[in-house]
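Worked example 4.2. Below are the chains of a multi-component assembly; read each line carefully before continuing.
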Amino acid sequence: MKRECDKCGKPATVHLTEITNGEKIEKHLCEDCAAAEGITVKASLPISQLLEDFVLQSAGHEDTSDLRCDVCGLTFQEFRQRGVLGCPNDYDAFSEVLDPMLRQAQEGAEQHIGKVPQRADSGQEKQNTMLRLRGELRQAVASENYERAAELRDRLKEMEQ
Amino acid sequence: MKLADLTKGAGEWLRGSGPMRDVVISSRIRLARNLAGVPFLAQCGPEQQHEIEQRLRREILNAQIANEVLYVDIASASELDRQLLVERHLISRQHATASHPRGVTITSDETCAIMVNEEDHLRIQVLRSGLDLDDAVDDIMRVDDLLETRMDYAFHAKYGYLTACPTNVGTGLRVSVMLHLPALKMTGEIEKAFRAAHDMRLAIRGLFGEGTEATGDFFQVSNQTTLGKSEEQIVREFVTEMVPQFVAYERRARESLVQRRVLAVDDKARRSLALLRAARMISTDETMYLLSLVRLGVNTGRLEDVNLKTINELFLLTQPAHLQKMLDKKLESEERAEARASYIRQRLGAN
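Applying the procedure described above to all two chains together yields the following structure tokens:
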């Protein structure tokens, strides 16, 4: 249900329930009116907002329409629609888009300086091979090619060791 | 250990102990982790999601993260059980309402919960009462290390731990501290505190996390930056700067209320207690609102015959799923209002 802002009629994005003396008062406001009332702080930059900002800013400069991860097949358009990535390789596939977004969301940072897994030995390449094999496995199962599926499953098991 | 055992007490986060417990209800840290060489959850088909769930369930149960753990298969759990876990902050709302194969592992003391197949393959979380993030971070790193010996995490030299949503990438670490700020609300200074939070790049949410409004003067404050800082740095900022600042604001507001408007505080706290003791039907919202004011009365020393632990427990045990679980039957909204009022009268020694 889309609600309009109680004050100006724009789409309401801030929904508040206030309880005063046990009486419930609901408020629906757009971000601007809410801010004017001092009610809310635009506390987080949700991923959808970041994506839209990026697309608006880069309009005419960069063509993102043909960005696609060749490992999981996710396109940038699909990422925009659902806000989550498809596989670890997307970070490399979409890096030109993600880097500026990350800088905005992460106080300018784009390099991890925290914990590193003790087993960080299995390289990106191996991970991508496994991702591709899994993709093939799904197709093999879907097309009822069970011999091929068994073969792929064995190879994956081996790589997981 | 059974799920039903959980309704007997209030669990870790409402124990009402720990540093700065007059203002800080609980501290929570979570880590987002994904398996290497496996697509993120949204890109997996149902079969693969099932396979991941089975594998992670097995690995977590074999990792011996605690003496006694319980694994709940969320996909086959009843609606009431799922709601119960949400009320206890052991799973997210999204995890409760999704429809794909998923689960959660809970340690018997409820200090650690690991969600399987939430937005990421693994969401490890550790809870503590009061402001106890140092202990929480030690514990979560221990669990993370234990799990990591059994599987490869998706990790990138530049981006760190890879997460389905880029806003969690890097450390995958989110610290959330739940604050009770009734005095700031009463003095109208809460907006100032929110703006300060915004300047510190913190997100503020309601009692039950994302997408919920703050109810009964409870606010959840969490970090937004997950990349470019170490885990220790993120936690340290909370412990030494951010939380103490909120606590100082709230304590100052409480002092000023007691000094200047003591009658108003007494009036609100005592009326609230009287209403709780007299009500024959009461909603969750009204209960939260009244309990919050009683808690303010207790914490400012203006109400002496009420036990803080009881108040803390009531916040949780009067929630819909808890009531139904305690009475062991499904109740409609009106029946719940009656059961809730009756339980509150019993706990607060009412007439």
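Take a moment to check your reading of the output against the notes. Confidence is low (pLDDT under 50) at residues 40-44 of chain A. The longest strand of chain A covers residues 14-20.
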